[in-house]
Amino acid sequence: MTDDVFKALADPTRRRILDELAERDGQSLFEICTRLTTRHGLGLTRQAVSQHLAVLESAGLVRTRREGRYKFHDLDIRPLERVVARWLGHDEPETGA
C-alpha cells in the first residue's frame, strides 16, 4: 500500500487535487475540474481528472461517496499518517495535544 501512496503523490496534478480537497472537502468531479482550471491553469478533461482520482482512491488518499446522482470526493490522510509514523518509529500516528 505504501508504494501506491508514493505513486499517487509522484504526479503534480494529483498533488494539486489533494491540495484542493484539503482546502475544501466533499467536491464533485465538476468542482475539482473547475478549481484545477481556474486556480492552476490546468485544462484537463473530466476523464483525465477522473483517472487521477481513481489512482488517489486506490492509494486510499481519497474516499468517494454517492448522494443521489452525484459523487463526492473527500481527502483521507490516514495513509500519509501511517507512512510518517513508520519513518518516525511509531507504531501508530500520534494524536492530541
UniProtKB/TrEMBL annotation:
The keyword Transcription applies. One of its GO terms (molecular function) is DNA-binding transcription factor activity. Keywords: DNA-binding, Transcription, Transcription regulation. CDD domains: HTH_ARSR. It holds the Pfam family HTH_20. InterPro entries: ArsR-like_HTH, HTH_ArsR_DNA-bd_dom, HTH_MetalResp_TranReg, WH-like_DNA-bd_sf, WH_DNA-bd_sf. Residues 1-95 form the HTH arsR-type domain. PROSITE patterns: HTH_ARSR_2. This is Transcriptional regulator. It comes from Streptomyces cacaoi.
